[in-house]
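Fold this sequence, please.
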Amino acid sequence: MASTTTTTAAQVWRPDQNIFAPEDALPDAAILQHSTVSANIEGDAPSMRVGYISDAAAAYHNEGATLTDTDPDLDEIVVITQEIGFYHEMTRDQYRKTNTPEQLAQSVARSITRLADKSFLSEANPTSPAVRPIGGLENYTGLSSQTAVATNIDKLIDLEATVRSAGAEPTAWVMAPDAWAALRKMKQVSSGGNLGLLGSGTEDAKPYLLSIPVFLNSQMSSKTGLLVDKNEIVSAVSGLEVDVDHSAAFKSVKVAIRGTWRIGYGVPRPTRIGKFTLT
């Protein structure tokens, strides 16, 4: 008696399922650029537990004397994840048109990246007891912050000093486009003219502020920016899973396309991340 297997069944009975490394499929996602990916989590229930040590202070010691006890604290944070999904149906005839699958794949990637960036950067914190959608980095408790940045960048200089004093080595500024525009419009008071505080910027291939690269992201809140050290942000991401099913809308002769990606993050030492807002 012959067996029915996926190798002999028609395509409709064995829909395609594809999993891509997120670094390849979603290279511009902020969580991949500005965090340290440390785990792959599947499902709402599992969490990533990140252990870290709060350093104890060393002490001076004299020869022959008893060493001072120093007890570092062993701490942890719990990282939960949020799944992001995309679903669309189109007629089989449209799906078969030249370049449609490729263009649709790019659209799925853009849509998931936008929502992932909002989740990672600016999503509002959920109201307890809810834990999802997870709040964005802007709203993380305990960040170093500066508000009412207005006519100069003195407060940003102070913010950099604060996070460095806490132990950070900043890797990027991440800010809303209008935040960067406002900084670019600041004028040099001593020039008596219209010379920008940050220069014209017309010759820059990549923007920098205080020698730290600047990344603009439309999912940041208006006139808000972050000073991040990617080594201080621990994240969990899954593979990008894309499914194409020719049977889900069988009666309508449609093809169903679904994309899912799961992300989450945590900051063990939030004072090493900076946030600023402009007036």
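The chain has one domain: 15-42+76-278. The CA atoms of residues 41 and 48 lie 8 Å apart.
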